[in-house]
Known about the structure:
heterodimer; A: mainly alpha; 15 helices; about 5% strand; B: alpha+beta; Beta-lactamase; 6-stranded mixed beta sheet; 5-stranded antiparallel beta sheet
Amino acid sequence: MTRNAEGATIVAASVLAGFAVSLVNFARDRSIDAQIALTFLVFLMAFGGLHLAVRAFAPKATPLLLAPVAALTALGFFQVYRLDLALGTNRAGLQRWWILIGAGVAALTLALLARRSISVLRRYRNITLMVSFILLLLPNLPSDWGFPLRGLEVNGSRLWIILDVGFTSLQFQPAELAKLGLVAYVAGYLADHQRALREARRHLGPIRFPEPRQLIPLLVTWGISVLILISQRDLGASLLLFVGFVLLLYAATGTTGYLVTGTFLGLVAAVASFLAFGHVERRVLAWLSPFEHYQDEGYQIAQGLFAMGTGSLTGSGPGLGRPDLIPNASTDFIFAAVGEELGFAGTVSVLALFALVVTVGLGIAFRSRDTFRKLLAAGLTFVLAVQTFLIIGGIVRLVPLTGITLPFMSYGGSALVGNLILIALLLRISHEEAP
Amino acid sequence: MNGPIRRLSVGIFTSFFVLLVAVTWIQVINADALKADPRNSRPALADRGKERGLIVTIDGVVVAQSVEDPDDPRSFIRQYPAGEAFAHVVGYNSFLVGSSGLENAHAGDLRSKRDLTISDLVTVILGRDLRPESVEMTIHSELQLAAYQALGGQKGAVLALDPRTGAVLASVSSPSFDPESLLGPDTATAWESLLADPDRPLSDRATREIFPPGSTFKTVVASAAVDTGEAEPSTVFPDPGQFELPGSTATISNAGGGVCNDGQGITLLKAFVVSCNTVFADLSVRLGAENVGITANALGFNTDIPFAWTIPRAAYPIEDLAEDDAALAQSGIGERDVRAAPLHMAMVAAAVANDGVTPTPYLVNRIFDADGNTVESFQPSPIGRAMAPATASIMSQMMERVVTEGTGRAAAVRGVRVAGKTGTSMGPDGLPNPWFIGFAPVEDPQIAIAVLIEGGGDLGESASGGAVAAPIAARLFEVWFQRSP
């Protein structure tokens, strides 16, 4: 696939977004309004612009990555728009701005890295780490002080910051960016210390592990970030980071002991949080038997299953189902909403597109010769894949629901910006490692 | 380093594959079960506001229709222009409280095929019609409205059949309700007050409730007696003032309290015409439960009658009665554990009118598409022969004498030969349930009727079938034979 074909596919994804929105309009009002043109133009500007940025700053990057991301964003946006109409909210308008902002920041990332190579992230990894910690801690700012940057507590979780900029205020989840910084730090650290970490000289019974001083910076980083997230009650993100770290550690060393130890520690943490947090216990109950707890904890999962089952093979059609019956459909349950209106055809398409993105990401990692770039590409892809698996798996009852968002599709600006930067980093690595 | 990454990739793709399996399970294999879960409101919501087919009477009066919602041009609202007289037959299709009657029984035909997706286009290309189909009932609107008016708000029911085919010409239950009150914003309030009403307006007394048929059941006993040769109209029976129940000190007495004739003897004909209880208690024991039961079963008792909806079984408990002569004697006058809905008793009259063959009652004549073409028509075959044609002829003569000179004189209509039988059974509340069953004209029967008034109606304790139910039947015969062509 050539760069031109990528451009054509992006135009097609923009048409898809506009067309889906107009189908929703037509089904509900028997009319087509300016939304179709507006949506088409926003997608064309955002992903067309990103495409041009790749041409300018990373011309040798793979042309396979941007198009599926644009298609996933289009599928997600159409459901956010559709749920707006049913619920009387105005999230699509905001989401359109976030798509533009996200694409702009991703293009900026490409531009900044164009002259310096991505190795800056390895060289200045301690700065990256500090910035990530600060980002993670920002929501703990007081929510009632006079300063324009404040923390915000939503549903008992402290994940948000508000930035007042005169006429309006922006809400952001800084953890979505910190996630990238932490992966970059760990990839950098592992690239420098992988040999030492691979030589497990110490013994503890049958388990062999390397010199403690080699592991300590990693454990401290991991411990601090997970502790911060747990204190903010963002258990989904802590789980994501934890799994991402363990996978990256194994990728760097090939030592199966890390996987075993990681799984063991993960189970301990899961049991501990089950005992410590009431809402974890409720979520496990809802996961095991959503229909027995239909009136309370299980309601969301049951509605998600009803939505997907009613959608069956071809779905109700855009605008013709009732995804608005699922609580928080546009954030947590966008996958089930797509499953109701586009049916099995829609959900399989979404899974295929994610599989394509992950395949391309892993391909970049395979082909990279430089250790840091290889580990960074692998780590970013792992985070994306694990996040996708956790949320879809939660909806289809493979794992308990963790309340993290579906990349590119869920409503939410911070996640979109963070994930588009992630794609920009993958594109940059792909460019630098191109033969 | 590519080794571990490759192994992790395998893990990632395996877990994505597991997601695919789970999605397949939910959306393909288990989809129908999830769709049908009663807690899943999506299918009901999808039907809401969609166009439904018409329900019309055999004479072309529209009793249920969908019109465009004036507030929302994309949505339809259901109307029942004929209102209360048709409420139990037509039923309602309410989002909040579900559906009933033909709206429920023929929901699959009445439902719109349109689902506003690409599949509509496929359907049109295949040459199928997206517009909903409509239901044509066998009910005749004039007769139905006349029956509802004749009941005059009394608790009760009227059921009229064409004895030759079983087509239901009228099926009315009173008191009734306005089905449109269950569609609007006040549905919940209306539903609550209908449920709380002690007169149970939602209940269909014509087809879904069974009552002791009283002396109208003597038609069944007399038919069995004539058919088996046990008696003929001229057979003379003893005429005591009281009939002592076998193995008991209790007695059965006659309606007037005295003897039926002269205290010496009485013919079967005379006993039938004046509705003599002592004779039929006696006759019932002489015939035995087995013999009465054979006739009763062939008339539709103890049988699941196929109908638009499930109707309760009419009861004549043969095995119990075979061991209990006292109960058998009481059953001979339609009391004790004998039960029938007006529908069943109309079938009894219809079988006599139809030369002894019991017709299968049916409510829907045909299903037609939006262009008026018949999609499916119905004409069920009869349940079977209940008595020999000669027996039916004798019974017909005896029933005519009931109207010309007996308890059913109030059912007489000028210029039409009417046959019938009255009855007054005792309800659990001590109030009488007056009955009348009959048909006309005797020489070529076109209509068979059962009328039931629950709790005596306006006359209360002093009500009898001849005084309360028979005049309503007369009114219906009049309407039927003067109906507009």
